[in-house]
Amino acid sequence: MANGTWRSGRARSGGRVSLLLAGIVSVLLLIAGKVHFLPVDRARTALTDRAGTVFQAVNAPVLAVTRWFSGIGHFFSVYSENQALREENARLTQWRGAALALQNRVNHYRLLLKMVPDVRYSAVTAQVIARSSQPFLETIVLNAGKANGINPGEAVIDARGMLGRIYVAGDHTAWVVLLTDLNSRIPVEIRPGNIPAILAGNNTDQPVLDAIPQNAKLRDGADIVTSGDGGLLPAGLPIGILRFDGKQMKVALYSDPLTAVDVRILDYRAPIEQMPKPADSDLPAPPKLSPPPPPTSPLQPSAQAVAQPSASAARAPAANPAIALVRKSPMATRQPPPSDLNTGSRAPAAPSDPEQYPAPAEESPDNQDNQ
Amino acid sequence: MSSFFAAIIPLSSGILGALISSLPISLTAGAMPPPLLSFMAVYFWCLVRPDLMPPAAALLIGIVQDFVSGSPIGLWATAYVAIYAVLAEQRDSFAGLAGIGAILGFALAVLLASAAVYGIGAVYYWRVLPLMPHLLQVVVSVLCYIPLLPMLNGLQHKVVGPLRSEF
Q1: Domain boundaries, chain A
Q2: Residue of B nearest to A54 (CA)
């Protein structure tokens, strides 16, 4: 039928036009797509805020089954793991004494050099209530949000090392972008040598290192920690170990997002640089004015009467308001450091206030620093 | 009114599939990616009721999938529109498949969609992306399509089917 043919032909061409238009719109969206859509993030956090308890209820049996299966694997290796743990414990006990001695020495050097103490930060503990592994987004959801003081950009760590950063935070839940996510790029440091680099996620369990200086000498097994550059993350958070994979340099992470349950979110703010407060000895001494010359004419006594109050004012340095302000300003107070931030191989952090430094141990001049 | 609701079922099923697959709940504790439930709706309704699944609907479902899955905006939308074009050209071949053939036809379509997303994503991020998450997503999607296909068929026959359509 001619009419049916014409109608089907027009429908086909109309469909092609709409298909072409849809294709053009999608490509334009892709080109203009590098935009952070706030309404999407708000919708995402609103959904998880309302469904947080459901996620926990659904995820709990899944976690229990997962742990049961992984426990079966551990059952067969419990003896060898026990032996390895005993040896490691003995080795770490020896290191503990050395670490305490080094800490005392560092405290002594801080006092001598009058170093500015490290910034302390508080932490919020939360639990993982959901996980999602999409080809373009690796995330976990926590049961803490803005009501608990969590803000986007804060570091998330577990007992072993850093997991990721807060991506969006609702009132009671928060999404974490993991270090393995494709969109994750953080500044790190390779130790020893304090070599700067960028840790870039690639949706595998071993992110890669980028932007390494050309002449940097690296070795397999080097320690990777956060560098603190940019003031977004605190420096020194353990991340993982460097592993060479052909020409690529990958990082074997300490933490495992698949098994992390209890995590901590660090409330870190880069300190604003403050000028050191001057002591009394730093301020210039008040000028010593010579006594006024005796009057030579009957008209001079008025000048003498004027000169006397200024001389008396110069002899009262204690009334200087700047010195009074310095004396009365309080010392900055800091939160106590989180006690379990450190792994077994790392020394605990030093206290912040110089007045609280423990008395340094007696040092032998023959001792050498271990590097 | 009932015909209007029946007419928006294909679009709604695609959007609902995108939302469900993007929920941060994983039966494998995050080890496997979620299935492409939204693409199942696009594939099925494109073959069975193309009048109710126009290219604009596929574009919209793709945009929703981008929003909720954390992908760059336009990535899945472009892939869905591209696969829609392929399905529209080969509709007779795909629609005529039955049984295992229907599953294999869907497997081919989702493989093409994932390949399109992988290629576009590689250009977008300007790096070689890992292949395994996409392959795993294809496998999971095919496995989930097997029990979903009878449900979609039931939806078509009992709810959407009575509507008349003109090709």
Answers
A1: 118-267
A2: B25
Is the CB of A28 less than 8 angstroms away from the CB of B25?
Answer: no
* Residues from chain A contacting residue B129 (CB–CB below 8 Å): 135, 182, 202-203
Asked if A139's CB is within 8 angstroms of B70's CB, the reply is: yes
Please tell me which residue of chain A has the smallest CA distance to B55.
A19
DSSP helix/strand/coil, A156 = strand
Categorise residue A230: left if φ over 0, alpha if ψ from -120 to 50, beta otherwise: left
Query: What residues of B are in contact with residue A15 (Cβ under 8 Å)?
Result: 54-55, 88
Domain boundaries, chain B: 2-158
Judging contacts by C-beta atoms under 8 Å, the chain B residues touching residue A204 are: 130, 132
Provide CB contacts within 8 A for A195, sequence distance 6+: A189, A212, A213, A216, A218
ipTM of the complex in this document: 0.82
* Neighbouring residues of B25: CB distance < 8 A, sequence distance ≥ 6: A55, A58, A59, A130, A132
Q: What is the DSSP letter of A169?
A: E
pLDDT in tens, B51-78: 889 999 999 999 988 887 878 888 999 9
In chain B, which residues have their Cβ closer than 8 Å to the Cβ of A132? 22-26, 30, 34
Q: For A150-177, how does the pLDDT look when each residue is reduced to its tens digit (9 = 90+)?
A: 988 899 999 889 999 998 888 888 989 9
> How far is residue A170's CA from residue A161's CA, in Å, rounded to a whole number?
24
In angstroms, the CA A114 to CA A180 distance is: 40
Cβ distance A243 to A252 under 8 Å?
yes
Residues B36, B110: contact at Cβ < 8 Å? yes
Structural domain A118-267, CATH architecture: Beta Barrel (2.40)
Task: Kindly report the pTM of this predicted structure.
Answer: 0.64
Contact B24 A257 (CB under 8 A): no
Assigned CATH topology for domain B2-158: Arp2/3 complex 21 kDa subunit ARPC3 (1.10.1760)
CA A151 to mean position of chain CA atoms = 12
Region for residue A223 given its phi and psi (left: phi exceeds 0; alpha: psi -120 to 50; beta: otherwise): beta
State how beta strands A262-267 and A223-226 pair. unpaired
Whether B25 and A55 lie within 8 Å, measured CB to CB: yes
Phi, psi of A292, deg, nearest 5: -65, 150
Greatest mean pLDDT range, A23-37, A110-124, A216-230, A321-335: A216-230
